[in-house]
Specification:
The chain is an alpha/beta fold and 291 residues long. 48% of the residues lie in helices and 13% in strands. It is globular and about 60 Å long.
């Protein structure tokens, strides 16, 4: 079920976008309360007792991990806490309105085993996925925490900008696959998606930017070009110009601009026709160490 399993990285990554809005009026839904988080932690502890899991509350999430207790706590109070604070400060007023569990498995083997045992899933990605049926992110934390920060973005986009097209949702999430901090702001650094983008620009297989912006959900996830890289590096450019946060705010606020083109041209101060050739030159010249 492609819409049920959300790969965190790689070629497929289906963000969970449960309908949270009726028309354009978001339903009022509260974030999980401290009691709800505590109760879920207790229930998980009772259920998982003796199986080597550590369970930690890191609002608005509950984290379950099979690494050493200190390591699970370090992920929760470290990169997860940090990314929640900085993402909220940068973009998001509302927290996810439902309690989402984050399952961190120490390697691919325990991740696949856990996905099967606890969720009945057979993941089609070695990294991780989001199960909307279970309100849970299930991931292999072994390769690093970038996938965790990627996925944390999705429930926040869902809660704050439910109409966001897939290109923006995945572009923003994939920005933080290699997260860093600059002057108190979360930033994304060039990563492993850059080389393929350069190849597609050089061999002219990357379509016009208007095509990316106009992709439906299915068109984005099934694109014959590297839609993730295209979206990621368009947003990375805006970040480098200090315009990404402004772009997000404009785009999310304007219900008459479903593709984001108007917001993009407004923050850039020019039309895409003149901007896109400059962006392509910038992307080809961009340096990255491919992590
Ligand atoms: Zn994603």
């Amino acid at each position: 079920m492609r819409n049920r399993l959300v790969a965190l990285t790689g070629l497929v990554c289906f963000a969970h976008l449960a309908p949270l809005a009726i028309g354009h009026v978001p339903l009022a839904a509260a974030e999980p309360s401290a009691d709800e988080l505590k109760d879920r932690r207790a229930a998980l502890e009772a259920r998982l007792g003796g199986q080597g899991f550590t369970i930690v509350v890191e609002p608005p999430f509950v984290v379950i991990g099979d690494e050493a207790a200190a390591t699970v706590k370090h992920h929760a109070s470290g990169i997860l806490h940090w990314s929640i604070q900085l993402l909220e400060a940068e973009y998001f007023k509302a927290r996810p309105s439902k309690l989402i569990e984050i399952w961190l498995f120490k390697n691919e083997k325990t991740y696949r085993k856990g996905a099967r045992k606890f969720f009945g899933d057979e993941p089609d990605t070695p990294y991780g996925y989001y199960s909307s049926d279970h309100d849970a992110m299930v991931m292999n934390i072994g390769p690093g925490a970038g996938t965790l920060v990627h996925e944390v973005v999705h429930p926040y986009v869902e809660a704050n900008f439910p109409e966001a097209p897939a290109w923006f949702n995945e572009g923003l999430a994939s920005m933080y696959e290699r997260p860093s901090e600059k002057k108190g702001h979360i930033v994304g650094l060039p990563n492993w998606r850059l080389p393929n983008l350069k190849v597609q620009i050089k061999d002219a297989t990357l379509p016009a930017m208007t095509r990316l912006l106009g992709t439906t959900r299915d068109e984005f996830y099934n694109a014959p070009f590297d839609a993730y890289a295209f979206a990621r590096y368009l947003l990375l450019y805006l970040q480098e110009q200090g315009k990404l946060t402004e772009f997000y705010a404009k785009f999310a606020a304007d219900k008459t601009d479903p593709t984001g083109q108007a917001a993009l041209e407004a923050v850039l101060g020019e039309k895409l026709d003149t901007f896109e050739p400059k962006w392509r030159k910038w992307a080809v010249a961009l340096k990255g160490d491919n992590r």
